[in-house]
Every structure is written in structure tokens, then in C-alpha cells.
Amino acid sequence: MKVEIKKSGNSAALRIPSDVLKELNLSIGEELNMNIINNGLSFEKISKPREGWFDGISSVVAKNEAEQMEGDFGTIQDSCLDDWIGSDEW
Q1: pLDDT(79) > 60
Q2: What does each C-alpha distance from 22 to 5, 19, 28, 54, 86 come to in angstroms?
Q3: What is the distance between the alpha carbons of residues 72 and 18, in angstroms, rounded to a whole number?
Q4: Mean per-residue pLDDT of the chain
């Protein structure tokens, strides 16, 4: 695909056709990694591993899960911190 480099202030800009954005699931304002490869450029979408992690989880389910974890692990932090007080070691 042929594109033209345009002036944009003190920088240069490349236009990405909307069908390419759609195919790559990219949107305006999204950040990409740019790498120089041989005599060209490579762009890669920055992955966000937890993006959409809580989509579809209701607040009731999340609250129940948090309460269960607090009941199971709530006392662990207190006992671990007691061991570190006055100690120089981690």
C-alpha cells in the first residue's frame, strides 16, 4: 500500500486508511510501538493484558468475590507484616 508523508507542524505524518484501522482494531488516539527495521518502519499495537478484564462482571459478583477473598486471606497480611517489623531483611 502506497502512502505519502505529509508535514504536520514540525513533524511528519502518515495517513492510515480507515479500512486498515478497522482491520487491525485500531482507533484514533491509540498508541503504537514504532521500530526501525532494515530500510523501513514497523508499527505494533501496544497490548494491554487486562483490557476488558471486568467486562460483563456485575458489581454483585465482584463484591461477593472480594468478600470471599477477604474471608480466605484477610489475616495473612497482618501476620506477615508482624514478622517484618524491626527487621532489615525482606
Answers
A1: no
A2: 21, 5, 11, 24, 57
A3: 49
A4: 83
What domains appear along the chain, each with residue ranges and CATH number?
5-45 (2.10.260.10)
- Would you say the C-alpha torsion 55, 61, 65, 67 has a positive or negative sign? positive
> Scanning the structure block, which residue is given the C-alpha cell 500500500?
1
pLDDT surpasses 80 at 63: yes
* Alpha carbon distance 1, 21 (integer Å): 14
The three cell numbers of residue 46 are: 501496544
Q: How far is CA 42 from CA 8, 29, 37, in A?
A: 20, 18, 7
The answer to whether the beta carbons of residues 84 and 90 sit under 8 Å apart is yes
Q: Which residues contact 57 (CB under 8 A, 6 or more apart)?
A: none
